[in-house]
Give the backbone structure.
Amino acid sequence: MRVGVVGGGLMGAGIAETVARAGHDVRIHEPIAAARAPSLARITASTERALAAGKLEAQEQRALLERIVYVDELAQLADRELVIEAVVEDRAVKLDYFRRLERHVCADALLASNTSSIPIAELAAAVSTPERVLGLHFFSPAPVMRLVEVVAALDTSEQTLATARRFVESLDKTVVMSKDRAGFVVNLLLVPYLVAAVRMLEEGFATREDIDAAMALGCGHPMGPLTLCDFIGLDVVSAVCDSLFEEFKRAEYAAPPLLSRMTSAGRLGRKSGRGFYTYQATR
């Protein structure tokens, strides 16, 4: 399949690598010119790690990278059969891209969003053919995580969903079908857990280390909730909280003041070098 990815950040690059590894041709539109080289470097580094771990052969790595091309204009996605939007988790930005994509891509191309929480119906309303719009929610890091949520909006056609399922399965991923509610399946269950951990820290109930150790060791989770927040990105967690609270108006989805303050201060987690913990910045 000929696939386009809009946005070359952490998720966009990971999705592109995943798609190219499965043998699909990928074009990435990263609107910020200065971000394209770091995006490609991120993909290259990821494939180098896979090569070193014996999960990828040198010839496969070269072929994978050759299948990825960065393009300057959305018009260069005109021949794509599927375009996956993976830009910042901002409703206005995503809506603008969907409006612009409709002008440039084929009339029968599928338009998907990797949004974590924004209702797909809102994005579908931005185009004249909402039956071809759906959610394809990958998880970070996309090359490693085995799950993709396929989200059907009110007008998404059965043909669109069937094509999307076949595509996701071609990536060797597991499909979970979800109706179009903010948060879908995973974040609707995950966010109250993360929010409770942030509130527990905010109230001085336990230290960050003890909160994380309790859930990692007591519940067998691969990492604690505060470490997970840093991994996801506090800005993303906060944006998902806002979307869920807007839709459901339930206190367990509201972003705690500490999370909002940290986001405003630029303490976004791993990608900024500082969140609940301190890291070497990745950007």
Observations:
- The CA atoms of residues 232 and 272 lie 12 Å apart.
